[in-house]
Specification:
single chain, flat, 49% helix, 5 helices, 2 domains, alpha+beta
């Protein structure tokens, strides 16, 4: 019998209590997201949310247990959430000012691409989690989003709709003289 082209990763073999903790954490997070999306506490919506979250949490735990999921964030990374929330508000203001200037003064606003050094890390679970969360945290802000993370160069290609300073999460890794990859400097 032929070997598969991609060998299956080894199962993690976690304890039952660990599996229950992860399953409950997934369920709570997914149910919370469901309630935010439906924006109601109607009994029918709660029931559907509870069942759908339980199914999705079971599948997520099965994938994690099989060893295919390589995502292991640090709890202290949650300390960046207020910074991301503040950046969302700042970016909303930047875009509002640009819109008013565009409509009132007919000023053209051109987006810009930046190539920014980032701590890419290797293929381990922590590095994968860091890249995914960095991509999410930058891209959820209205003015900036990550187009590409390049492992070869250890850089991120970031697009800004209105040229402004780098996202604070990227500024930690960028040198003082980081220049745009294309377009006008802010």
């Amino acid at each position: 019998m032929d070997q598969p082209a991609f060998p299956r990763p080894a199962a993690r073999g976690s304890s039952l209590s660990s599996r229950i903790r992860f399953g409950v954490a997934w369920w709570a997070a997914l149910l919370g997201a469901w309630l935010l999306f439906v924006d109601t506490l109607a009994p029918a919506e709660l029931l559907v949310g509870v069942v759908a979250s339980a199914i999705a949490a079971s599948l997520a735990e099965a994938v994690r247990e099989s060893g295919y999921m390589r995502f292991w964030p640090r709890a202290r990374w949650l300390l960046q959430a207020p910074r991301v929330a503040l950046q969302i508000l700042v970016d909303c203001w930047i875009l509002e000012v640009a819109l008013v200037e565009r409509l009132g003064r007919r000023r053209t606003v051109r987006g810009v691409l930046y190539r920014v050094p980032v701590r890419y890390g290797g293929g381990e679970s922590r590095a994968a989690a860091r890249r995914a969360l960095l991509n999410f945290a930058v891209s959820i802000t209205p003015n900036s989003y990550v187009l590409d993370l390049e492992s070869d160069t250890g850089t991120a290609l970031v697009h800004q709709l209105v040229p402004d300073r780098l996202d604070p999460l990227l500024e930690r890794d960028a040198p003082e003289d980081a220049l745009p990859a294309h377009g006008d400097a802010p």
